[in-house]
Amino acid sequence: MALSTRLMMRQGQALVMTPQLLQAIKLLQFSHLELSAFVQDELDRNPLLERAEDRDLGPEAAPAIDRFAESEQRGEAAADAPDWAGSELAVDSGQLSADLGTDVSNAFDSDAPPTPAAPAASSEEAGLSADAWTGGAPGGGTGGGASEGEAPNLEAYVAAKPTLAEHLAEQLNIACADPTDRMIGRALIDSLDETGYFRDDLGETADRLGASLDRVERVLKTVQTFDPSGIAARDLAECLAIQLRERDRYDPAMQALIANLPLLAKREFATLRRLCGVDDEDILDMVAEIRRLDPKPGRAFGGETLQPVAPDVIVRAAADGGWRVELNTEVLPRVLVNQTYAATVNATRINEVDKSFLTNCLQNANWLTKSLEQRARTILKVAGEIVRQQDGFLAHGVEHLRPLNLRTIADAIGMHESTVSRVTSNKYMATPRGLFEMKYFFTASIAAQAGGEAHSAEAVRFRIKQMIDQESADGVLSDDAIVTRLKDANIDIARRTVAKYRESLRIPSSVERRREKTALAAQPA
Question: What structural domains does the chain harbor?
């Protein structure tokens, strides 16, 4: 069969997703912080977009601002400019000094503008304007650390929070006078991890710095005396020992306890009591002392401040006994399309390139506003169905949390599972029971013993925790005993599942719990 080339035509259909459709899908899974950052980028890029809050100033605001700017350029004071010196916001430095009992003249600009010295020649002859010898601003001086022609920077008075390395470096400069020791100390400080531990090999560090091992170890001992207590330790035992020495609690019994931390983790109190040579009361006091220590001293300088979680949806109890679901408008960015500006620019004579740019900006602006509105409606629809499905949880607590999956919500609201998954990602719901991530309401199903209604995995985990919290020293429940009790409550569950749920709750085994409860029961009241 000979090979040949032919020209063929085929007709077919395919689903093609436009870039705007792909971006609209991404908007669904954005958190409110990511969405705000995305909208801010669009506002910077698109001149036809504006925030809804910007229109609250009223139509008179822009002309007033323009008139004030024009008067500043002419070197005049606008007639409608605010008189800050005569208002209640003006700072009386004399009264403030009397109230605070200190001199604040170096912290604020003087109340009256400075009187310039008489120039040798007129300003026109010297080539200077009026602003040049009044500080560059109307009535402005150069006080309070302000640069020429600028208002005082109040943010300069706010001290930034130091990092762990900066905090330790300040103490190093005081503790070590020798420049070589300071260099070694800075290298050791730079090697600390975020929790404050020195994880590197001391011998390799000495070889890298070209110093003797004894000298590097001596500098490390010096750094370990710095604040916070326990810093620069090489392991947990050394970290706890440093803190105990500063508290004058590192006696021989405590040394033996620190040397056997694995036994303490297993709650082998009988063995620890024998190794430390103390009685039951003393061993419990020693354990309580260790629990008051900080195992990660560097986390106080752990970087940026964590932002609190803001809910995307708020659920409140309605007057008719139901639930009212509404969006949290404080975290939703509101943008508008400036149609007036678009029409004004389009009415002028512009070239084809500018007209194409304007058309593209208008299309993107309309698309963004519609996408944000559709995103809000989708979130509200999914949240409303979740509230309807989990009505028992909202009314009675976690024991009544129903098993729920994405398909149930998707079928109820007529959407695809992937859409529901994107909507519930990184979204939070504020309920009378607390603040929960939307993913929290989707839990696995555990079958009932007699073929009844299935139970939620989260509800079963809560039951297990309740059983263990209510057990006594003489009645510690094993995993098999918990399985028996759950089956009596019509919950069909395996022993390995109970062990998995117990470990996820960070609850020790029945043997370790029995040892701890027995030791606590033996402590005198």
Answer: 164-301 (no CATH), 313-443 (no CATH), 446-522 (1.10.10)
